[in-house]
Amino acid sequence: MNQLGNIRVFGTGITAHVTALLLANQGWRVHASAPRRLLEGRSQRDVRAYAINHRSRATLEASGVWPHEEGAPWVTAINQMRVFGDLGGQLTIENQNPDTSAKGHTEPVAWMVDVPALEDALWEACQKQPLISTMPDGGDTPSHSSAFDLTVICEGRSSQQRQRQEIETDTVNYPHKAIAARVIADHPHGGVAQQWFDGERILALLPVGGAQGRSLAVVWSLPASEHRQWSSDTSAENTEQLAIALSTASHHALGQLRVTAGPVGFPLSVSQATRWFEGQTVLVGDAAHTIHPLAGQGLNLGLSDAQTLADCLAIRKRWEPASAPRLMQRYQRLRRADTQTMQWATHSLFHLFTNPLSGQVPIPWVRNAGLSVFNALSPVKHWVQRLGMGN
Ligand SMILES: Cc1cc2nc3c(=O)[nH]c(=O)nc-3n(C[C@H](O)[C@H](O)[C@H](O)COP(=O)(O)OP(=O)(O)OC[C@H]3O[C@@H](n4cnc5c(N)ncnc54)[C@H](O)[C@@H]3O)c2cc1C
């Protein structure tokens, strides 16, 4: 394969290694960073599991890491999503693709993916791709920068390279923090993802461990003061109390829950970089934007960044540099618009369901009636559904 030039990718998460694979597949020589946990070892169980939409699945397929066989243990299909308001409002989401439902089978709405397993599969694929080499020092040496046609920063929300480039972000920190954990339930989840908005907290129980499993990934968005109660004390007694609180908050929909890993705390913010590129440097993933996890879209946006960046480089004229302003501006324009739409929708939902004023009548009625009306409005519902699925 013809080598087009040298690209350096900072970061060791999913977006970094997907970007490396997509660009190497085009013929770029990519210099990537090895996962840090290979160097540091795994000290505790990683509880992260993310919902992946259809567009992200296609990107993971193009990267060569989506499992060929159905039923790979680290991927669980979500066949239905149920969202409950605090006064009985309910929204149900299924994949109503007319092509497949006419043939008698429905496609999943999304897939839950075990993050450590996906990260391992990506790094294995990077090591097998001859055009990807590992940066010995993490590529951190400033003198190296002129040797690269493009530097892609995928270092996550606290990116140091972004700060070095003096790229600012517009950030709003939520008054909430998230707890992530794994639980096992009395009853099988049946591939259904469920979410409850109770006026102050947002709880999601997400199916993992296969279609017939009873294991769930928990994402619980809580006021910061309450969050401290669960995250600062990891004693067995407190973990048992957490299981009781989660069972109650989920209305015992799957019976009693038992915590099997975690809890781990995450700060929550909505942010966007003021510019997505600077000279020969471009931002991808959480380094460019963050979003509240209530709609499970953060990584999906990051994977769309990686795919769009690769698509922009694919239309490069032979005489153009990889960092040509025409290409970088196109990338920024496409990704900024998509990201802002999703951030606006998620931010509005967060405030509609958790704002202190939202406890006053008629706002709870409006939001619950809104969920049910929305559930009945097929065209609007399908449009939002398609947006969330990445179509
Ligand atoms: C509780 C919770 C639940 C979520 N659920 C979902 C979901 O269901 N679906 C979804 O799409 N999104 C979800 N998200 C969002 C998702 O976690 C992020 O959007 C996604 O992880 C961003 O990926 P990234 O690769 O851009 O950044 P990160 O995942 O932060 O990865 C960046 C990595 O690079 C490393 N790094 C930083 N600096 C350097 C350096 N100099 N050299 C080498 N490595 C470096 C970091 O240590 C880090 O490991 C959730 C987020 C939270 C908090």
The gyration radius over C-alpha positions equals 21 Å
The count of helical stretches stands at: 12
Question: Which parts are unreliable, with pLDDT below 50 for 5 consecutive residues or more?
Answer: none
Q: Could you say which overall geometry the principal axes of the C-alpha atoms support?
A: globular
> Can you count the beta strands?
17
Main sheet specs = 8 strands, mixed
The largest beta-sheet arranges its strands as 6-5-11-12-13-10-14-17
Helix content: 25-40%
Ligands, deduplicated: flavin-adenine dinucleotide
Strand content: 25-35%
> First CA to last CA: what distance?
32 Å
SSE order, one letter for each helix or strand = EHEHEHEEEHEHEEHEEEEHHEEEEHHHH
Average of per-residue pLDDT values: 86
Class based on secondary structure composition and strand pairing: alpha/beta
Could you outline the blueprint of secondary structure elements for this entry?
Layout: E1 6-10, H1 14-26, E2 29-32, H2 36-40, E3 49-52, H3 54-62, E4 75-78, E5 80-84, E6 90-93, H4 98-102, E7 110-114, H5 115-128, E8 132-134, E9 150-153, H6 160-164, E10 169-185, E11 192-197, E12 202-208, E13 215-223, H7 224-231, H8 236-249, E14 257-273, E15 277-278, E16 281-283, E17 289-290, H9 298-314, H10 325-354, H11 363-376, H12 378-388
Parallel strand pairs: 1-2, 1-9, 2-8, 5-11, 9-16
Antiparallel strand pairs: 3-7, 4-7, 5-6, 10-13, 10-14, 11-12, 12-13, 14-17, 15-16
